[in-house]
Design brief:
Two copies of one chain form a homodimer.
Chain A lengths: L10 H8 L3 H8 L8 H14 L5 H8 L4 E6 L9 H13 L3 E6 L4 H13 L4 E11 L11 E7 L6 E5 L1 H14 L5 E5 L5 H16 L9 E3 L9 H8 L6 E4 L2 H14 L8 E6 L13 E4 L2 H16 L8 E4 L3 E2 L10
Parallel strand pairs in A: 1-2, 1-3, 3-4, 4-5, 5-11, 6-7, 6-8, 8-9, 9-10
Antiparallel strand pairs in A: 10-12
Chain lengths: ~350, ~350
C-alpha cells in the first residue's frame, strides 16, 4: 500500500465543495462564524466532514498558543510490568479533558530525561506530569517550572509542586489490623532491603498497628528480603521453621509473598491453615494466580494517574492552587490467604 | 513555585549576546551557515547553549515538513504488565535515530483509536507504529496509508504493510524439542481457550516436534486452559493424577505454568523430579520467582519493538521496501523446571 498524498484534503477543496472562498472556509472552521448565515456555516462544516478535512494542528497551535497536549515523562512505567495502570488513569483523565497524552519513558537515564523534557517543551505541551515507577523523593529538573506540572508517584522535598503518592503507612497499618482482627498476635514482617520511602513507611504502619493493639514489636520476626529471582528464601525458611514461629506474615510486596508461599511449601505448612500471608501491590500477574489467592494491599496506580492529570488540568485552566501533597488510600484486597486464628 | 515566563530565552536574546542580528542568529541556528565565518557560527551556538535557547519546534516543523516525531498507537501495551518491553525497544530505536516516540494507548476502544490516529496525523508525525499487546490479525485503519507505517505484534491479511510478530510455531517447537532431548516421550500440552494466532501456531509447533521425533500426538494429554484467577486447575489435576500421566507439560503461557505448579503441589508431585514444566512468555514477574525457576520460551518484545522502528526509519528516509512480514525468533530460557528422564 503506497503512501497516497492525494488522500489529503486541503482547505481549498473544502471551500470549493461548499462554494465559498478559502478565507470564509478558514474562518468558519476556526469557529469564527459571526459574519456568516447558518446555511453557509453548515455547508462548510458538512463539506469538511465529508471530505475528511484535517486542520493542521501545528499551525492552529501556533495561533492559539495551546497544543491540547499533555506530556508525561516517566522513568520506566510503560516499559516494566508494575505500574502501567498509572498511565491508564492519566490517559483517561486527559482524554476526558480533550487532551492528548504524549508519553515518553526515559528508563531512568539522566541524559535521555533531559532530551525528553526538551522535546516536550519544544512541542509546547500545555502541562507536564513527571512520574516515577515507584514512590520516590526526587530533585525536580528546573524546566518543570516553565509549564504547569504535577508529580506522580514522586514527591520533592520543598513541596513546591503538587504531588500524589500512595499512603504506604495507612495501607500497611490496615493490612496488619486485618490480621489482628482475624486473631493473629504473632505477626512477622518480610521487609525490603532498599532504603526507599515505602520501606520505612510500611514498617511504621506495621509497628503502629501492633502498638495500638497492645502487641509488642518482635524484631526477630522481621526478616530482610531474602529473595533473589530463582534463589532461596533461607531467612523466611528459618523464621517459619522455628518453634515460636509467627502465625502470619505481612510481606513488603507480592513477590516476597510468593517467596513466602515457596517457603511454606518447602516446610509443609499450609496457607492459610498453618500460616496466613498478606502482600502489598496487588500485582495482577501474581496475586490472583497464587493458590490460594493472595490477600494484599493495592497500590492505587490508576487512581493516582487520574488524580495527577485532573489536578494538572485545573492548573492549565489557570486555577490558583496551593501545591497539594496528596496521599492516595491503599485498599486491602481480600482473597484466601488469611485464616481466622483461634485464640 | 510559580511559572516563570522570564526564564524563556528568545532568539533576540541569543542574537544580542552574540552581537549579531536576529536574522543571522536564526539562519545559523537552522544550520544555514554557508554565508558566515566560523567565529560567528561558534559565537551564536555558544550563546544559544549558554542561555538555554530552545527553538520553537512547531514553527520549525512547519518550515521543514518534518517533526522528528514517531507515533506509536497501541491497544493496551503501556497500561498492562505483559509487553512493555516492546515500547522500550521502539523507544530506544527512535532515540537512536533522533526521533521522539509519542505514545498513545487506546485501551482497545475503537473511538479512542480513531481520535488517537487523528491526533497523531494532525501533529504531522513522520511515521506510525500500529501495535497490539499480543499477536493479532487486524484490519488496519485507512489513515495508516497516509504516512509510513509498520505493524508491531500484529499482521493484516493483505500484507501490504510491513509487520513483525513472534515466530510462535518455532518457539513452541524448540521448547518441545528440548523436552524430547531431555528424554521425555509423554508430553502434555496445556492450551489456551481463545482462538488467537498464538493458540493454533503453538499447537502446530508442539505437534510438529512430536512428529519429527516419531512420537504420537496424544489428544488426551492436551487440556484446554482450566485456570481462572483464584480458581482451581481441575483438568490439569485430573491429567496429572492419572496412571498414564505425562512426565512433562508444555504450557501455553507462564500463568498456566504457575497453575501447573499449583496442581503438582496439590498432588504431591515434585518439579522437576516428578514433572517437568515449560512455559511461554518469560514473564518477568513470574518465571524467575517460581520455585524452581521456570524454563520458558521468551516472547521477544524488546527485539520486535526495535525492529518495527528500525524498519519505519528506513521508510521515513525514503527507502523503497517491499512490505516485509518478519517473524521474530522466540528463544528458550532455561531455568530449573526440566529434568532429564531416564529412558
Amino acid at each position: 500500500m503506497a503512501i497516497n498524498p492525494a488522500r489529503k484534503t486541503r482547505l481549498k477543496d473544502v471551500a470549493a465543495a461548499a462554494g465559498v472562498s478559502s478565507a470564509t472556509a478558514s474562518l468558519i472552521l476556526n469557529d469564527k462564524t459571526d459574519a456568516f448565515p447558518t446555511s453557509t456555516i453548515d455547508r462548510v462544516r458538512e463539506s469538511a466532514a465529508r471530505l475528511g478535512y484535517r486542520p493542521n494542528a501545528l499551525a492552529r497551535s501556533l495561533r492559539s498558543q495551546r497544543t491540547h497536549t499533555i506530556g508525561l515523562i516517566s522513568d520506566e512505567i510503560a516499559t516494566t510490568p508494575f505500574a502501567g495502570a498509572m498511565i491508564r488513569g492519566a490517559q483517561e483523565a486527559a482524554w476526558k479533558a480533550g487532551h492528548v497524552l504524549m508519553h515518553i519513558d526515559t528508563e531512568g537515564d539522566y541524559e535521555m530525561e533531559q532530551a525528553a523534557l526538551e522535546a516536550m517543551l519544544e512541542r509546547k505541551v500545555d502541562g507536564l506530569v513527571y512520574a516515577r515507577m515507584h514512590h520516590q523523593v526526587v530533585d525536580i529538573p528546573d524546566v518543570l517550572t516553565e509549564v504547569p506540572a504535577v508529580l506522580l508517584d514522586a514527591r520533592e522535598p520543598t513541596e513546591t509542586l503538587a504531588s500524589v503518592v500512595p499512603d504506604e503507612r495507612s495501607g500497611a497499618k490496615g493490612a496488619v489490623e486485618h490480621l489482628i482482627a482475624m486473631g493473629h498476635t504473632r505477626i512477622g514482617f518480610v521487609q525490603c532491603v532498599d532504603p526507599i520511602p515505602a520501606a520505612y513507611q510500611r514498617l511504621d504502619g506495621f509497628q503502629t498497628a501492633l502498638k495500638e493493639a497492645g502487641l509488642d514489636y518482635n524484631e526477630r520476626w522481621t526478616v530482610i528480603d531474602p529473595l533473589e529471582p530463582g534463589g532461596h528464601a533461607l531467612e523466611v525458611d528459618r523464621l517459619l521453621a522455628g518453634s515460636d514461629r509467627p502465625t502470619a506474615l505481612f510481606c513488603f510486596n507480592d513477590r516476597m509473598a510468593l517467596g513466602a508461599y515457596n517457603s511454606a511449601r518447602r516446610l509443609g505448612l499450609r496457607i492459610p491453615e498453618d500460616l496466613s500471608v498478606v502482600g502489598f501491590d496487588n500485582l495482577e500477574t501474581v496475586a490472583p494466580w497464587l493458590d490460594p489467592g493472595l490477600t494484599t494491599v493495592e497500590l492505587p496506580h490508576y487512581e493516582m494517574g487520574r488524580w495527577a492529570v485532573d489536578y494538572l488540568e485545573r492548573l492549565i485552566d489557570g486555577e490558583s492552587l496551593a501545591p497539594e501533597q496528596h496521599l492516595m488510600e491503599c485498599p486491602l484486597i481480600e482473597r484466601n490467604s488469611v485464616s481466622r486464628r483461634q485464640m
